[in-house]
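*** Fold description ***
***
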Amino acid sequence: MKSLANSLLLLAVLAVTCPGVTESTCRGSEKTIEREKGKPRLTLARENNMLFIQGDHIPGGRIPINYLEAYCRANSTDADWVKHTLVKHETQTLSLNEDQTVLKLKCTVADGVTVQHTITAKSDEVDFHLVAHNPTERRSEVHWAQPCIRIGEFAGQGASTTDDKYAYIKKSFIFLDGKPAFMPTRNWATTARYVPGQVWCPQNVPRTDVNPRPLNPEVPGNGLIGCYSGDNQWIFATAFEPYQELFQGVIRCLHADFRLGGLQPGETKTIRGKIYIVPADMDALVKRYERDFPEHLKQD
């Protein structure tokens, strides 16, 4: 009798939670939900100008990003970073939804430009949608900006593992000749106003307008930059459109710095970007990137 009572109780619960469907269908739905719960999940957090991409499956547990590190002027390749290039800004958190997957920010740049950021975390990527607007009556000098993505721990070469701040670059890549080129790439540059580091400038950007670190003579094959995790099971990669440069920095970081190109009075521009955190299947990543950024497809 007790067993019969339990069976009747279960059927009653199923009738309430799954009205209009059979018991087997409801149980199938419950299994689907459980599978969804088991999928990798990314969330967002922000503290002291740092954006954190978080996930139990991420090597190191999270990826910190100085978001944004800087807004910058043109004619920067051989200029003083503080006296010339850097344009001051403030970033305000507007909202973060309850499940920590949609973060909205607003940057106010010293010359009056505003940039609205909608950052959305999905199961294996983070999507960036930016709207830059110049409400003033004068042209903005802001040409590009830097999200500084700290990938040392992800690459298994963080401060907790090694004192070598540049060990991570051997896990890092850009694309040359249509295939991944691991760092240090060919023709690695070593001289600049500030060293070390490495910059790759796309064809459509003046070489006078990039980060004042060593400028590699190679033109990147596309706008994707990334690295493998320490256990080689995952790939981190990022891209923005339009992009100003790809950059290997000095704080165990990688950059796909986005381009603004200056804004005329009243002008509005949109920028989009992605961060991918995916299983280590480079061919699948490249196909996905090419779907997301068809503008970046070109011959080396």
Notes: The radius of gyration is 23 Å. The first helix runs from residue 2 to 17. DSSP finds four helices and 17 strands in the chain. Residues 1-35 have pLDDT under 50 and may be disordered.
